[in-house]
Amino acid sequence: MKSxxxxxxxxxxxxxxxxxxxxxxxxxxxxxxxxxxxxxCNAMHITASVFINDDxxxxxRDFEAFLERLxxxxxxxQYAHNGYEDNADAHxxxxxxxxxxxxxxxxxxxxxxxWEQIFYGEFDGxxxxxxxxxxxxx
Amino acid sequence: MKSxxxxxxxxxxxxxxxxxxxxxxxxxxxxxxxxxxxxxCNAMHITASVFINDDxxxxxRDFEAFLERLxxxxxxxQYAHNGYEDNADAHxxxxxxxxxxxxxxxxxxxxxxxWEQIFYGEFDGxxxxxxxxxxxxx
Amino acid sequence: MKSxxxxxxxxxxxxxxxxxxxxxxxxxxxxxxxxxxxxxCNAMHITASVFINDDxxxxxRDFEAFLERLxxxxxxxQYAHNGYEDNADAHxxxxxxxxxxxxxxxxxxxxxxxWEQIFYGEFDGxxxxxxxxxxxxx
Lengths: 138, 138, 138
Known about the structure:
Three copies of one chain form a homotrimer. By secondary structure, chain A is α+β, with helices and mostly antiparallel strands. The first copy, chain A, is built from three helices and eight strands. The first copy, chain A, has a five-stranded antiparallel β-sheet with strand order 1-8-3-5-6, covered by helices on one side. Chain A has a three-stranded antiparallel β-sheet with strand order 2-7-4. The longest helix of chain A is centred in the middle third of the chain and has 14 residues. Chains in contact: A-B, A-C, B-C. At the A-B interface, strand 4, helix 2 and strand 5 of A face strand 3, helix 3 and strand 8 of B.
């Protein structure tokens, strides 16, 4: 069995954003030399998400509106977590969108459906944050 | 290490439905010959979900009502994604219910709790859509 | 390839609670002897969750309030599932928080970010319930 690990670092200049990281996952897989197995990709921070959905700007605005409706950022005082912090909403948003994806690796490729793209969802940006890619297989 | 892949195709005759696919996962595992490892089962489409919960019709009606309350299908015009599309709600519903499950394989069986059943959640049906099963182990 | 399995059992004395189970996952990993691979940790019951977030009591109160707003426990009669059962809300809450986490194993350690902690989320407690840990790798 082979294993491979890579960390990606992102500094986003807004509090919330969605970034397509499929190319980085594909590069990691190519560098790993693994042809059959599983790829795990997860946010290493608990106010961020890795998820798979569509690379379409309108949908991303819909996600933003949906998440703000369910767990609004402001007023900060509505959350018990927000004493020294102001990011309770980001912890909740990440919980809705999920921490991680596991993707099949087949014939040396990410085994994704036709529209599946991997995204980094940032909910408390403007500082360096990491994503982990771990691949096992052979 | 052994690996095994299978794709399932579903055409549901309503926009939304839940289908128990535990038997298909069990058959794939038996066909793989893998006795210890992990089984990944994921929707390959981004308006559908694979999740684990209870096989009980009342609960499925509760899921439907819950998802429609959080991300209603209509009016289609409420979503920025819906220009040529009308399925923004399906992308959001799938995000709530999740894309995938990872199930332990122990002694050649899916290592599920007493009531755990694997479901395909369709949120934009009436066309062929695929589910991926990938198993690694030995 | 090596594989390792452990079940944890919890009996919580309230209907809902969050329990940090990172130490139990670390102990299982140490006992497995696996140094590179993947660790799956999932609830075996469909009214409970395993998720990763912050070990902060204020945030846990925010999660509780958020989940009760989205899928209130009472009145029990609001849910189609609740005939002989009274726990439809718990099935829905678990769906929001997720069933499982998959964590990378690197150099014999859980490869977690600085604040990532693994939690057992109980939504229908006061009886014995199980969590599965499965580790594969070498």
